[in-house]
Amino acid sequence: MAVKGLGQLDQQYDGTSIRVGIIHARWNKVVIDALVNGAINRLKSLGVKEENIIIETVPGSYELPWGTKRFIDSQASKNAPLDVVIPIGVLIKGSTMHFEYISDSVTKALMSLQEKVGIPVIFGLLTCLTEQQAMARAGIDESKSMHNHGEDWGAAAVEMAIKFGPRAF
Amino acid sequence: MAVKGLGQLDQQYDGTSIRVGIIHARWNKVVIDALVNGAINRLKSLGVKEENIIIETVPGSYELPWGTKRFIDSQASKNAPLDVVIPIGVLIKGSTMHFEYISDSVTKALMSLQEKVGIPVIFGLLTCLTEQQAMARAGIDESKSMHNHGEDWGAAAVEMAIKFGPRAF
Amino acid sequence: MAVKGLGQLDQQYDGTSIRVGIIHARWNKVVIDALVNGAINRLKSLGVKEENIIIETVPGSYELPWGTKRFIDSQASKNAPLDVVIPIGVLIKGSTMHFEYISDSVTKALMSLQEKVGIPVIFGLLTCLTEQQAMARAGIDESKSMHNHGEDWGAAAVEMAIKFGPRAF
Amino acid sequence: MAVKGLGQLDQQYDGTSIRVGIIHARWNKVVIDALVNGAINRLKSLGVKEENIIIETVPGSYELPWGTKRFIDSQASKNAPLDVVIPIGVLIKGSTMHFEYISDSVTKALMSLQEKVGIPVIFGLLTCLTEQQAMARAGIDESKSMHNHGEDWGAAAVEMAIKFGPRAF
Amino acid sequence: MAVKGLGQLDQQYDGTSIRVGIIHARWNKVVIDALVNGAINRLKSLGVKEENIIIETVPGSYELPWGTKRFIDSQASKNAPLDVVIPIGVLIKGSTMHFEYISDSVTKALMSLQEKVGIPVIFGLLTCLTEQQAMARAGIDESKSMHNHGEDWGAAAVEMAIKFGPRAF
């Protein structure tokens, strides 16, 4: 029995009216690019319009929480508020403890950001022990062993915006 | 001497007047379904009416805290406020550190959610190292080695709502 | 030289005018009961009146922080505010990671609860790797290898209430 | 090249006008006493007047954050506000996980206390794996292998009070 | 394929109008000095004026969050508000658990500081297991095995100030 399986969407969602922000770190660019593309493709397949997908970047993953906060503020200040945001970063274990402290603090800061900004924040952070793991989760390892996780984030963004976004009820 | 034992209810509770939300992730669906059913069955056995058990879902466990917050808000906006909520998710250790960071951040976010929403949040998150452990705690491993933990959550929900819910005093 | 030693009270305290709440989980009941009794005995030996020791329970340790919050609110709503509270729970390591996530989140939630409720919260949580360790710290293992830690909690409660409680200055 | 070295004061500080609180746990008293004395000696050597060093105690390290909060409040209520506080505790690893959960929660609670009380909180907590490590850091192991860390805390207190205390600017 | 690679700036930035604070601990001075110089050099190369780079210090890394908070307040009180701040510290694993608790609490406190002060806080904390690792990341080990990470922090500061600083929009 396959217990551990990909969650499927619970219904068909129509993303034509939602506005989605993607903000990504620029370290480990090959993996990041694949993940961002995966997210965009899934967003579009669920009806999100290209002009409603806004892309921004920060230097590294530690900058994601504050960058996401200000990215949301910035869009709102232009009268183009986001319904949901997907911060994307790829952390890979190195020889110091940098990986652990960054992964932990960024994960928690993104979680708690939601109540401050009032929109869903999708967790697009890979916390990998090897480069191979990161490539696999972006769907770009040689054997194509896994699907592109950016696709999951795109689907989650549409669902969360429609169910629980600022205009949901 | 059996030290480690299941806590029993301290008194008989009558759940006929309480309204319970269940919000569950959709990853690891087989286990999730069993846990949700276990919770529902126990709620009903303690008098909670079927129409007062509201079910909602989110894609994965990371979405539980914000989803729970908005699910509660949504029910309140319909003049049908919840007395207690049971977020349910099943996390299983994989090869990256995803399991650890999600488990930790979700556990703490659900804990701190209580003071923000003012109702008890029952901890329905399994943090398992293997699929086998998850199935056992849902009462669906082959040897039926453990009871369905969803039942505990249903009982805890009724007790916490009646003792410490928003209408308790 | 014995470095690691039990802290003694720094002065004699008179608990006759303070009101103490004890709220305990019901899992691992044998150990819990011994700890609760140890705390009560010490409270009484420091002058706390039996009618000023209020006992409440929650299903498990995860319910302690919210239960403690509402227990305090409930007593205040009856014009019988508590000066200090002792949440008591016994967590024992199992095969999943449940122990770690619960222990960590409950410890921090009880710590931060103090500033929200304005009274001292004594840390009555045992985080043990084995049942044997739990029994020893409740003073009920066969060899009576350790003293009942509930006694320390009772003493700490009286001291903290008198020095730093809501009526201390 | 000696990389890991004690930080020196960046300038001479004159502590004659500042008021310093020391609040210490009472477990592991031999080590605590040495650390408290080390801190006091350094404070005096930087000009802090004896009558401006206020000593208070709590039972154990878990009580430090709330005790420190209320100690500060108490001094302020007497029109004798503190400019800086040094909570001191000694935690030594035992057989349960008590050490880990206490160390972590106390460290973070003392850190976040600063923004609530508006004065610097110096970190006087030793988190040792053995008694030997604790004695060494208090300057009282047989071989006098290390200096008394209480001295560092005294120096840090004076610097932080003068640079960043409530009366600094 | 080189996955794990240094993130490059996404565009050319002009730092001539921004004001940058650097606040560093003084432990492990050789490494700290190299990192601070690396940051300053990169700031200047991106146009930041020397008179707009303000340097401050604290005793150790635990003092960084509160010191950073008050450093920002102090500059604002002089009508010379900072646009971004770079706290710099070097933590090296020792025999007790001091490294772990300090690293974790400082990382999280710096992260959450951003929403309190409203300016970006760049993460200039090295959390190394050996002195060798620290020297390598400051570009001062014998083999010059890595670049000076202070340079990354300088670049991140300019980008974050211009994109997401208090005067960005």
Automatic annotation (TrEMBL), chains A, B, C, D, E:
Named in its record, the pathway it takes part in is: Cofactor biosynthesis; riboflavin biosynthesis; riboflavin from 2-hydroxy-3-oxobutyl phosphate and 5-amino-6-(D-ribitylamino)uracil: step 1/2
E.C. code: 2.5.1.78
GO terms (BP aspect): riboflavin biosynthetic process
| Quaternary structure annotation from Swiss-Prot or TrEMBL | Homopentamer.
Identify the species of origin: Lachancea fermentati
User: Cellular component terms, GO, for this chain's entry?
Assistant: mitochondrial intermembrane space; riboflavin synthase complex
Q: Which reaction(s) does the protein catalyse, per the Swiss-Prot or TrEMBL entry?
A: (2S)-2-hydroxy-3-oxobutyl phosphate + 5-amino-6-(D-ribitylamino)uracil = 6,7-dimethyl-8-(1-D-ribityl)lumazine + phosphate + 2 H2O + H(+)
What Pfam families does the annotation carry? DMRL_synthase
Function description: Catalyzes the formation of 6,7-dimethyl-8-ribityllumazine by condensation of 5-amino-6-(D-ribitylamino)uracil with 3,4-dihydroxy-2-butanone 4-phosphate. This is the penultimate step in the biosynthesis of riboflavin.
PANTHER family assigned: 6,7-DIMETHYL-8-RIBITYLLUMAZINE SYNTHASE, 6,7-DIMETHYL-8-RIBITYLLUMAZINE SYNTHASE DMRL SYNTHASE LUMAZINE SYNTHASE
In which family does this protein belong, per the annotation?
Belongs to the DMRL synthase family.
Q: What keywords would UniProt list here?
A: Riboflavin biosynthesis, Transferase
One GO MF term attached to the UniProt entry: 6,7-dimethyl-8-ribityllumazine synthase activity
Q: Write down the superkingdom of origin.
A: Eukaryota
The protein here is known as 6,7-dimethyl-8-ribityllumazine synthase
